[in-house]
Specification:
single chain; 178 residues; alpha/beta; 7-stranded parallel β-sheet; two-stranded parallel ribbon; 11% helix
Length: 178
C-alpha cells in the first residue's frame, strides 16, 4: 500500500472485479482482490470444478492452459482471456463466447459447431481441421487465423476482420459472410 492511501473493502454492490478495481483506482483505495488483468491463469482443477457445476467462465484467465480434449459443450465464456491456450480436439458445441480474447490459441480438430462468438478476438489462432457448422461470429477479429481444412457449413460471419485468414481446403458451403 502506498503512503497516505486508505485500505477499504470493495463496495458490496459491485459484483464485477473490473468495476471494483476501476473504482478502487479512481477513489484512491487499494482493492482487496487483484484487478482482472493481473489475475493468474486458472488451475486445471478449478476448470474441472466449473465444468462440473455452472459451466460459466466469466472473467476467467485461461492463458497458456493446455486443455486438449476437454468437453466445454454448452459452456459460457464472458470477458475470458485464453491467449496462447491449447484446446486441440476439445468440444465446444453450443458454447457462447462474449467479449473474450483467444489470440494465438490452438483449436486444431476442435468442435465448435453451433457455438456463438460476439466481440471475440481469435487473431493468429490455429483452427485447422475444426468443425464450425452453424457457428455465428459477429463483430470479431479473425485476422491471420488458420482455418484450413475446416468444416464450416452454414457458418454466419458478420462485421468481422478476416484479413489474411487461411481457408485452404475448407468447406464454407451455405455460409454467410458480410
Amino acid at each position: 500500500m502506498l503512503p497516505g492511501m486508505i485500505m477499504k473493502r470493495p463496495l458490496p454492490f459491485i459484483s464485477s472485479p473490473r468495476v471494483s478495481c476501476l473504482l478502487s483506482l479512481l477513489l484512491g483505495v487499494v482493492a482487496l482482490q487483484p484487478c482482472y488483468a493481473e489475475q493468474e491463469s486458472m488451475r486445471t482443477n478449478e476448470v474441472d470444478t466449473i465444468l462440473a457445476t455452472t459451466r460459466i467462465f466469466e472473467q476467467k484467465n485461461l492463458n497458456r492452459k493446455s486443455l486438449n480434449g476437454y468437453d466445454f459443450n454448452h459452456s459460457r465464456f464472458s470477458q475470458a482471456t485464453m491467449v496462447r491456450a491449447r484446446f486441440d480436439s476439445a468440444k465446444f458445441d453450443g458454447a457462447i463466447f462474449l467479449d473474450s480474447d483467444l489470440s494465438s490459441s490452438s483449436f486444431v480438430d476442435a468442435d465448435l459447431s453451433g457455438s456463438k462468438f460476439e466481440k471475440v478476438i481469435i487473431e493468429g489462432s490455429d483452427l485447422r481441421k475444426g468443425r464450425f457448422n452453424r457457428m455465428t461470429f459477429i463483430d470479431g477479429k479473425l485476422a491471420g487465423a488458420n482455418l484450413s481444412q475446416a468444416n464450416m457449413q452454414r457458418i454466419f460471419v458478420e462485421r468481422s476482420d478476416l484479413n489474411k485468414v487461411n481457408l485452404t481446403g475448407s468447406d464454407i458451403s451455405n455460409g454467410s459472410f458480410s
